[in-house]
Amino acid sequence: MHDIKMIREDAAGFDAGLARRGIMPLSPELLELDEQRRAALAKQQELQAERNALAKKIGEAKRNKSDTAALEAEGAALRAKMEALDAEAPRLDGLLREMLAKIPNLIDIAVPEGKDEAENKLEKQFGAPRNFAFTPQEHFELGEKLGLMDFSNAAKIAGSRFTVLKGALARLERALGQFMLDTHTSEHGYTETIVPLLVNDAAMFGTGQLPKFAEDLFATTDGRWLIPTAEVSLTNLVASEILPAAQLPIRMAALSPCFRSEAGSAGRDVRGMLRQHQFYKVELVSVTTPEQSWEEHERMTRAAETILERLELPYRRMLLCSGDTGFSAAKTYDLEVWMPGQGTYREISSCSNMLAFQARRMNARYRAGEQKPDFVHTLNGSGVAVGRAVIAVMENYQNEDGTITVPDVLRPYMGGLEKIAAA
């Protein structure tokens, strides 16, 4: 959410920021609505002052036993005007908030210009793709031949974009989630947190999913939403709070199911479990002061990279360009892991700094000493997507006979199992 006062002070800068996202200038419309709102509020105060003065006159007239009919008629007319403004001021305020709620965050100056993912910037690369002595298979080919990945029965009970994992592959997914959580909590300072999977409108609004992305979400019949990521629940834990500065940064991690309708993705990644309606992810969330947030962004991204490096999976860090940066983010790094079955890199983590954008929507603030409260900065990142990590391990560690070697770091979580074979 943007601060209308800041827009008022630098309308040209605000519109220039929107232009980097390909959005036409909005400040004239916003400021016109803001002026009407402020005029209505000023008129309310003016009428209230008149009403107070008139009440005083009526009181004096009654004490002097004078005729008050004219004064009372004047008071009735004032009340009618005030009642009209009592409805108009909130209406204008609601319209302004509605407009502001649909405007994305402004992009940081370090973000490169670009229209889409093709213009993202390569920041670093880790590892080299393995040279296979055979043609590597995709994960769904491997999983089905092993008898441990079942798409047909998943479709029978739930429809498309669901998967049933069995036996060692099910344990592999659990092992990956536990390994990620253990690493982030014991080495990176995140507090393990179990969060609600169902949230209200305010929570979805606070992190920017509502109102713009309602079609990408699953709604319940009682007015709640299934979370698309644990970011929603974790970040909203500080909603409406004023935190002591000494308590920051707050770092939280959650392993949770995530639910996405994948609206607009028809025909994309329809085979396998790359793009699912339900999947597990380890989410990292940090709440910081403004002075800490950029350093925290680098720290969080490194925490996610550590997972991929321990798994010895080739990956690259991409700085998203202006046209590919998400609605709430000011700057985002994507980590893309090599998928040999597909012969390409695919996103497995996004780490974003939202600055104060979400905090304004949630009214999440902090106070340093006796200073006036200010908005916190919020950050989130995947640490990492568990389902996609399963795919990456399967494809990168596959053998010519169709078995899958278990990465060394995961063997303690797999009961010492060294190789996944057919059931």
Topology at a glance:
Elements: H1 4-9, H2 11-19, H3 27-63, H4 69-101, E1 121-126, H5 139-146, E2 149-150, H6 152-158, E3 164-165, H7 167-187, E4 191-192, E5 198-199, H8 201-206, E6 218-219, E7 225-226, H9 231-235, E8 242-244, E9 250-259, E10 278-288, H10 293-310, E11 315-319, E12 331-339, E13 344-353, H11 357-362, E14 365-367, E15 374-375, E16 377-385, H12 386-396, E17 404-405, E18 419-420
Parallel strand pairs: 4-9, 8-14
Antiparallel strand pairs: 1-11, 2-3, 5-7, 6-7, 9-10, 10-16, 11-12, 12-13, 13-16, 14-15, 17-18
Helix pairs in contact: 3-4, 5-12, 7-12
Could you please describe the fold and organization of this structure?
By secondary structure, this protein is of the alpha+beta class. The protein has two domains: 4-101, Helix Hairpins (Orthogonal Bundle), CATH 1.10.287.40; 117-420, Bira Bifunctional Protein, Domain 2 (BirA Bifunctional Protein, domain 2, 2-Layer Sandwich). 39% of the residues lie in helices and 20% in strands. The chain contains twelve helices and 18 strands. It has helices at 4-9, 11-19, 27-63, 69-101, 139-146, 152-158, 167-187, 201-206, 231-235, 293-310, 357-362, 386-396, and strands spanning 121-126, 149-150, 164-165, 191-192, 198-199, 218-219, 225-226, 242-244, 250-259, 278-288, 315-319, 331-339, 344-353, 365-367, 374-375, 377-385, 404-405, 419-420. The chain has an eight-stranded mixed sheet. A hairpin with a 5-residue loop joins strand 6 and strand 7 (225-226). Helix 3 runs antiparallel to helix 4, helix 5 (139-146) crosses helix 12 (386-396) and helix 7 packs across helix 12. The longest helix is centred in the first third of the chain and has 37 residues, at 27-63.
